[in-house]
Amino acid sequence: MALTLDACVAQHQGDRKEQQDRVGLMAHPRLKGTVLAVLADGMGGHTGGALAAEQVVHTAQNNFSSYAPKDEAAGDLLRTAIHEAHLLIRTSRFLNEKDPHSTAVMLVLEPGGATWAHCGDSRLYHYRGDRLLQHSADHSYVEHLVRAGKITPEQALIHPNRNVLLTSLGDKDDPKIDVGQAEVQPGDNFLLCSDGLWAYFSDAEIGGVLAAFPAREAAEILINRARQRCQGEGDNCSLAILRLLP
């Protein structure tokens, strides 16, 4: 069955002095129906985090432009892109005397399937209609506590160490990279977003918005609600929405 893609990327600087998130969406130059979405949340002082996030998006898009499914699995493509971006960010520390780091979440949509990879706490959500099929598990201290049964997901949202990551691009150690795959069908919705967005929503509320509205309108609704709920203390807020329609 032929599918139509309704997609949108959006950002808000929040209440920060600088936008250090980066997000991108591109169609493959040769492969029909093959699309990459990538989002990165940079960290590392003035301009350092922004440069790290920019490196993630740039590296992913460069690698994707030469992607050939007959020669390389999509999961390997994304894993390589994250690792290469990590090495480039590490190298930049010696050039600009900063300490840049970044999260990364990437999605390749191609006929019949979706593949994603992530490192850090920027998330990917996969819904069928408004029903959550899965979302990526954060590489964070509070997620570790949740999995160990020491705190609840609700407690994680207000934990004082909720922003502490266990891995990221630019660390001295190689990044932890998780890869996932799924078949797709009409009515599937994907959301990539930074913690400046997902921190203010339940999974069910996100699914309801994605199922009920076109991508651009859904992006506006989610960002506006996040801004209302952050009470003047909002982080950079970025997202990419991809909706599959018959």
What is the fold's blueprint, element by element?
Blueprint: E1 4-12, E2 21-27, E3 35-43, H1 48-65, H2 74-96, E4 101-102, E5 104-110, E6 113-119, E7 123-128, E8 131-135, H3 141-147, H4 153-156, E9 178-183, E10 188-193, H5 195-198, H6 203-212, H7 215-229, E11 237-245
Antiparallel strand pairs: 1-11, 2-3, 3-4, 3-5, 5-6, 6-9, 7-8, 7-10, 10-11
CATH superfamily heading: PPM-type phosphatase domain
Q: Mean of the pLDDT scores?
A: 93
CATH class (first level) name: Alpha Beta
Strand portion: 25-35%
Q: Which structural class should the secondary elements be placed in?
A: alpha+beta
Query: Helix fraction?
Result: 25-40%
Number of domains: 1
Distance between the termini: 7 Å
CA radius of gyration is 17 Å
Helical stretch tally: 7
Q: Specify the CATH architecture.
A: 4-Layer Sandwich
| CATH third-tier fold name | Phosphatase 2c, domain 1
Count the beta strands: 11
Shape: globular
Major beta-sheet overview: 6 strands, antiparallel
- Which residues form runs of ≥5 with pLDDT under 50? none
Q: What is the N-to-C order of secondary-structure elements (H for helix, E for strand)?
A: EEEHHEEEEEHHEEHHHE
